[in-house]
Amino acid sequence: MRAIVIALAFAAGMISTSLAQTWPTHPIRLVVNFPPGGAADLLARLIGQSLGETLGQPVVIENKGGANGNLGGEAVARSAPDGYSLLMSSGSMVAINPHLYASMPFDPAKDLIPVASVARVPFYLVVRAENPVQDFKAFIADLRANPGKRNFGSPGIGSSPHLAAELLKKMTGTDAVHVPYRGAAPALNDLLAGQLDFLFDPGIAIEHVKAGKLRAIAIGSAQRSPQLPDVPTLAELGLAGFDADAIFGVYAPAGTPRDIVARLNTEINRALATVALKERIMVVGNIPAAMSPDEFGERAREDSKRFGAIIRERGITAGNN
Questions:
Q1: Where in the chain is the domain with CATH 3.40.190.150?
Q2: Angle at 98 between CA 32 and CA 235, to 5 degrees
Q3: Is 196 in contact with 153 (CB distance < 8 Å)?
Q4: How many whole angstroms separate alpha carbon 257 and alpha carbon 168?
Q5: Tens digit of pLDDT for each residue in 162-211?
Q6: Best label site of 90, 138, 212, 234, fewest CB within 10 Å?
Q7: Is 190 exposed, middle or buried (0-12, 13-18, 19+ CB in 10 A)?
Q8: Is residue 104 within 8 Å of residue 68, measured between CB atoms?
Q9: CA gyration radius for the chain?
Q10: Are 39 and 122 in contact (CB under 8 A)?
Q11: Residue from 129, 68, 124, 132 nearest 100 by CA
Q12: CATH class for domain 124-219?
């Protein structure tokens, strides 16, 4: 019996190796679980183009937003584990959503496996340029003078930008109304249109900051941003330990051959090391972050503990805002 088990394991390993050597033979689908225009979408298109060139097959981007990333995540989790269906997601779908939803149609920790991180995404606290608030001190003073009268947008309930704002409210003793959207781009559009007072932006607002349409008054990271080096961190401004960064990266259905996962990780990390891709990622306000699959998975587990505590303390669920 033991000999049969060993033989089967050996055969499975041979099949996996053989598949990895011939893969890919046709286009790869890279699902983005948020609408076009957001950080996940921009990163997917950058890394997809690079992967297509190195793998010799097109990488087709498919936007499938909804349910805070769950719809796209489930679509990939239910796909064949053959290396032809991948997911580009923010860390929130894996690390945060299980704390938000009483039940999910799939288990991100079991039904998906980490392939490669792509970028660390800082969140920039931005307001419109015509807002009389000039700095963080004035911003907090305004919130305290108008409890519950200011509003902020986010890509969705429990998204990393939403939790960044909740952490800000907690640490400053202020209140503001949350307006959830189905992605970062729609929230940004409403800020520019004057429908919102502020938001934590994942980098897509930087061009508007540089154009003078928006004002960045702080960054919710442990370090300053290379793109906006003059903008202080919230920790520098008195909110000790404030760090709301998210890691965006690529996942695959559980059961995807390890050799394929290893090759994808190698190719993505190689692309992230090139000057051209580094610069393009930095332009959209993100910071390249190459990791092994194990390192990527461990970061998700750490974020789950950190953000789960905030969610429980603030009483946030997918059914309220």
A1: 2-119+246-314
A2: 85
A3: yes
A4: 42
A5: 999 999 999 999 999 999 998 889 999 999 999 999 999 998 999 999 99
A6: 212
A7: middle
A8: no
A9: 20
A10: no
A11: 68
A12: alpha beta
